[in-house]
Structures are given as C-alpha cells and as structure tokens.
Amino acid sequence: MEQTRHTGLFTRRFGPSPHEGVPAVVLVHGLGLSGRYFVPLARRLAAGGASVLVPDLPGNARSRAAVRRAPDIGATADAMARWHRRLSLPSCLFVGNSVGCQVIAAFAARHPRLVHGTVLIGPALDPDVPAWCQVGRLLADAPREPLSLLAVATADYLLTGPLRFAASFRHALRDAAGPFEDNLARIRVPTLVVRGAGDPVASGAWVRRVARKVVDGRIAEVGGAAHAAHYSAPDTMAALIRAFTPKGHGVRP
To answer: Is residue 101 part of a domain?
Structure first.
C-alpha cells in the first residue's frame, strides 16, 4: 500500500500505478469515516490486477485539514474531480458505500467523462425516511457489523469530530431530499446497486428504487452482510465487481 496526499486528500493506493494501462477503481467511504474500512476490498481488487485508490474525503479523518468546514455533497464531488485531475487518472470505476453513494452520484452527474461505471453499496439516505429514523437505522446496524469495523469506525468518527459529522449529516439529508435522485437519473454508465441482506439502513425497496433511477441499473444482494457488505464480505463483493465491470475495463479474477 502506498500513502500520498493530493489536493489535500489523504490517499491510499493498492496495486500498480493507474498510469500503467490497468483498470482504475476509486473507493468512496461513507459519512464521517475514512477509507480504512475499504482496505479489505481494495486488497482483493488489487490482487485482480486493478489500481485501487482510496481517498479520505475532504473534512474527514486524515483529510480533515483539507477544508475549513464540512463541504456539502456537490462541493465534495467537485473536490474529488480536482483530486482525479491532479492525479491524471483515466476514467474510473467508482465504488461507494452509504452516503458515499450520494457523492458518487453527484460526481457522475457533474463529471461524466471521468466515470465508466458505478457500484453503490447500501446507498443512503432514503429521502422518505425521517432524519431521526435514519439515525435509528444506523444505530441498529452497529450490532450487525464485525467488531473490528466498529473499532475502525469509532476511531474515524473521533478523528473527524462530532461537529463535522453533524454538519455532513445535514448536508447529506438536504442532498437526499432532492439532488440525489436527480443525479442518479443523470448517471449514464452501468451501475450495480448492492445490498447486504441484513442491512437496516438501505431497504430492499429503496435499493430497487435506486436501480430504477439510473439508466442502466442492476441489483445484487450479499447474504450474511449488513450495511458495510464490502467490509464483512470482501471476497463476495470483489467477485461481484469483477463480474459487473464494464467490458474493456475489467479486473482479472
């Protein structure tokens, strides 16, 4: 693993350089977290020949100092575009979890030439679910996740800080209330929407709705997983991504 910082964003890279003609995959974390909980999946995708980049989003964890206050979803997507261009990356497959899916939707809508496919794992937030209920669902997910993930998440939340987390949550709620679904409808690349079978945050009905919103959407479910299926079932997720990856951008088995 190589660790660098570009346009203020702390970035982990697994596998070869993205400039060596290999598939490039970007993993986008959820609310208040860092890219650390994507490491198990990143290692498996890199073993399949991909160049995998895992940034901490601006204002979060080790990219906390990149901004003075928590940016909204659109500003986060634009910061990701600057990061993408600074690294001179090719068109990438973007894989996100939870609110990271909202960032990817905004990114793909605003910067379509930089994206050749998207994978949305446990997309949040459902605009029809009240904020207090969203919090309840997140709390209900905690005992369904591996203890090691809870340790990573707790450390990341403390590093990001409660004020940044609260501000980011408000931004995510506003995005979910309107822009998120509009952005989904503007995604023109193949999209895989994944749900852990035990996910209390992203319901089956909501996942189906997300898949219908995009132009080319399909659904997969991961048994024995909850909201962070990429962490608890990285082998299954890597296999799903390899099978899904658009032709010409494949990750070897």
So the answer is: yes
